[in-house]
Amino acid sequence: MAGAAIFDVDGTLTDTNHLHVVAWWEAFRQAGHTVPMPDIHRAVGLGSGDLIERLLGADRDPGQDEAISSAHTVLYGTYFDRIPAFRRAGDLLRTLAGRDWQVVLATSASGAELAALRRAVGADEVIRATASSDDVDRGKPSAEPVELACRLAGVTPERAVFVGDTVWDMEAATRAGVGAVALLSGGIPRADLERAGADAVYRDVADLLDHLDDSAFGPGPG
Q1: Are 35 and 24 in contact (CB under 8 A)?
Q2: Worst-scoring range by mean pLDDT, 43-52, 100-109, 213-222?
Q3: Above 90 in pLDDT, residue 133?
Q4: Are strands 127-131 and 179-183 parallel, antiparallel or unpaired?
């Protein structure tokens, strides 16, 4: 095996970051909070609890957290039947699997949401395992999801590459000691991704696929 190809999903394989922004904005509004959408966008990729704390502060009423998170889940769920995958997302995963990379997902999504995302990508046959928010105590930017993904693939961090679209992804990859590949498809600036630890930056999954041989997934172990 070449190693583990670990992928974030939202904003990386699926074009869903801004759907999350709208769902979170409405969830906050229903709870009586006005939160600017650009702030929400930059927090997407965090687990629900961390996202709420980042946007409302540690001095918020934590008694609202469950209701806000539940409202987001319900609102985002209205998109499940039409979630868009990025062009060639499934092709990238199948190509890597064909080159003996073990494909593992590391995502804050779980349950019905994760199932909808996987349907959108359409490459379940090559996804070896998933490290979801249900499987870890702390989500990204903690290293825990990426470390779990490595264990599920049975590889050391030195033989793994993590692909994501947020600064949280890059920080998690760096802390876990794996290669960090960033995509601009989530709407985060290149400079922010590089500061967070990205070893390489590509436009999107299609761009990465076009340059695969010159990437961390090129000949030899990652």
Answers
A1: yes
A2: 213-222
A3: no
A4: unpaired
**Cα(140)–Cα(122) distance, integer angstroms:** 24
Work out the number of other CB atoms within 10 angstroms of the CB of residue 33.
Answer: 15
pTM of the model: 0.95
- The closest of 162, 210, 166 to 186, measured between CA atoms, is 166
State CA 159 to chain mean position distance.
Answer: 20
Question: In Å, how far are 33, 132, 147, 153, 206 from 175, measured between CA atoms?
Answer: 33, 18, 9, 18, 27
Residue whose C-alpha is closest to residue 86's, from 172, 219, 212, 202 = 202
Q: Name every residue whose Cβ is closer than 8 Å to that of residue 94 and which is 6 or more positions away in sequence.
A: 123, 125, 126
State how far the alpha carbon of 8 is from the alpha carbons of 21, 36, 167, 190, 222, in Å: 17, 25, 12, 17, 17
pLDDT digits (tens, 9 = 90+) for 50-76: 999 999 999 999 999 999 999 999 999
Q: Evaluate whether 198 touches 56 at the Cβ level (below 8 Å).
A: no
